[in-house]
Task: inverse folding
């Protein structure tokens, strides 16, 4: 629907983290249009009994090979996505790009990314792209336990990673949000992706540290203005029409309704209460 | 409308109801919800393959929706909670009336009312703007929540559902479709009451309720908690609902139709027209495939019209019963 589907060949099935599947697709038709923040809609006629267009964030792009890696989001019922069971060489129907690229302030040389295992797939390409562009990137990465953390090899060596685990098995014992205030003064721009708890906590702490909400992705800081980092949230969505009409991914931001499949996934934080996953 | 299948000519048009009839060129209905209010629909599917487009639910005043997640996949389908979010009747008309006028199929607006009074006011609002709006029918959504019932669906209480249906019927002379789900209380009696009230057709395409905890089992998978189910997992229940109301009034059958074969099942169970929903996201060509399949099925049986497919399985059952 909307943009015409193109064919993609499944080259490999891997994992971004334990239980978090990723597909490597040969997708030369779309590769030039993909940026950090984009997702694809994937469909395979024989994968499962119900033909749904699943939202898969783009996690890696190899322009020379013509390949794109996308992450499959875990199903609500805990089951494995049937797309991860496909044989190599399978042909998928792909629509994209879904959403808008994450636009970064050109003056933001030091970028803080706050994420968890769920949000990692939405910001991996961003971290890689920023590092390749010579910006300094620090990632605060939260997980329940050390065993669930994505391997550091998925990111460039220049990206500084600080881990927080809920059970204290690695790094900081607690939430990644606990570490946010340490970097608030350092960062020119902050991007947060993950659970509603993480997004809420990050927003509250950064506001306390006087980091401004980034209400428009296109507005850059006027020259000469005192340094104040801007915060953007990346809100995940899973399934829908991909055309902005079904209402399945509508997010209420401070600036009004955002259709994540069209205007998202980057949004400005809402007022005092984040209206995302389970935050009501 | 007539089309040839090989040497056989098969009609696809049909008329639903008699007191307030609705003529459709094709027995294919786009369910309320998946394709929006209208302006975008023709970019997503070919409406020339469709008999009736039903808008997303529209209320008198704007309604906000729940938090994310609003849609999650469950085994065999989807669990969703959009809660009839819409910008209110006036904004919908302003933005979509031109698309309704241009549509190559009939258009029904889906009415969402939390009180009987607001329903009458909503219909009056549409009719007060009749010079700008082309509406061929109303769909009264009895699966929408009622403030009069503390948020429960209208269809959950027989008396409330009948009262709202009668209120809608008294408010307009246009064809009126009443939408229910397999969860509706006393469904057969409700269908008969709707027929008595002069309802044009019963759309048995509403989503039954569902619930699933999140992965950590700390809350619902949907932020709203309870949601509505779509997809193949509801199809047998939807077909049972069609069977249970067959004969009371014309039926639009839907719920989990994802292929032409599924649509033929709905016709066979008693549906005069079939309603397509979330399957369109993956298969925008489904209306045409269903239409062609229905024509072939009718031709293979020597029928002059696709509408004669309705209830074939039921009549077969009756024949067996009488043997």
Result:
């Amino acid at each position: 629907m909307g943009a015409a589907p193109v064919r993609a060949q499944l080259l490999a099935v891997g994992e971004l983290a334990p239980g978090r599947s990723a597909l490597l697709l040969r997708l030369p038709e779309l590769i030039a249009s993909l940026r950090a923040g984009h997702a694809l809609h994937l469909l395979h006629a024989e994968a499962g009994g119900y033909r749904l267009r699943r939202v898969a964030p783009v996690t890696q792009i190899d322009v020379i090979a013509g390949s794109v890696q996308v992450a499959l989001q875990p199903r609500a019922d805990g089951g494995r996505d049937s797309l991860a069971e496909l044989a190599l060489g399978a042909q998928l129907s792909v629509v994209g790009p879904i959403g808008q690229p994450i636009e970064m302030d050109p003056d933001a040389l030091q970028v803080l990314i706050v994420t968890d295992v769920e949000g990692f797939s939405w910001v991996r390409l961003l971290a890689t792209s920023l590092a390749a562009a010579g910006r300094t990137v620090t990632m605060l990465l939260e997980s329940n336990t050390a065993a669930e953390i994505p391997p550091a090899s998925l990111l460039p060596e220049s990206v500084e990673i600080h881990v927080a685990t809920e059970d204290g098995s690695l790094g900081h014992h607690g939430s990644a949000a606990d570490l946010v205030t340490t970097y608030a003064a350092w960062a020119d721009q902050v991007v947060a992706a993950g659970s509603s708890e993480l997004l809420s906590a990050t927003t509250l702490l950064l506001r306390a540290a006087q980091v401004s909400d980034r209400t428009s992705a296109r507005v850059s800081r006027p020259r000469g203005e005192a340094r104040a980092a801007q915060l953007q949230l990346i809100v995940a969505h899973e399934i829908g029409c991909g055309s902005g009409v079904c209402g399945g991914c509508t997010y209420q931001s401070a600036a009004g309704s955002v259709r994540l499949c069209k205007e998202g996934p980057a949004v400005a934080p809402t007022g005092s209460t984040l209206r995302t996953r389970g935050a009501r | 409308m007539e089309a040839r299948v090989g040497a056989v000519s098969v009609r696809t048009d049909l008329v639903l109801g008699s007191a307030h009839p609705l003529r459709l060129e094709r027995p294919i209905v786009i369910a309320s919800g998946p394709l929006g209010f209208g302006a975008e629909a023709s970019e997503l599917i070919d409406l020339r393959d469709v008999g009736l487009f039903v808008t997303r639910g529209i209320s008198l005043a704007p309604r906000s929706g729940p938090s994310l997640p609003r849609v999650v996949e469950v085994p065999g389908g989807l669990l969703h909670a959009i809660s009839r979010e819409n910008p209110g009747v006036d904004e919908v008309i302003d933005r979509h009336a031109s698309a309704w006028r241009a549509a190559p199929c009939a258009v029904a607006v889906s009415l969402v009312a939390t009180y009987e009074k607001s329903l009458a006011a909503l219909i009056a609002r549409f009719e007060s703007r009749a010079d700008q709006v082309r509406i061929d029918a109303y769909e009264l959504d009895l699966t929408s929540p009622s403030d009069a019932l503390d948020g429960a669906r209208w269809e959950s209480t027989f008396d409330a559902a009948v009262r709202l249906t009668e209120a809608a019927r008294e408010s307009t002379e246009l064809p009126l479709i009443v939408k229910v789900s397999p969860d509706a209380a006393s469904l057969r009696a409700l269908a008969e009451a709707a027929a008595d009230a002069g309802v044009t057709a019963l759309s048995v395409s509403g989503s039954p309720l569902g619930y699933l905890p999140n992965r950590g089992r700390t809350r619902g998978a949907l932020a709203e908690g309870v949601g509505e189910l779509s997809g193949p997992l509801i199809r047998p229940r939807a077909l049972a609902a069609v069977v249970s109301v067959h004969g009371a009034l014309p039926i639009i059958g839907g719920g989990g139709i994802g292929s032409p074969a599924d649509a033929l099942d709905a016709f066979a169970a008693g549906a005069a027209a079939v309603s397509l929903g979330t399957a369109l996201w993956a298969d925008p060509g489904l209306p045409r495939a269903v239409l062609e399949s229905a024509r072939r099925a009718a031709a293979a049986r020597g029928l002059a019209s696709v509408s004669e497919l309705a209830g074939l399985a039921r009549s077969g059952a009756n024949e067996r019963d009488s043997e």
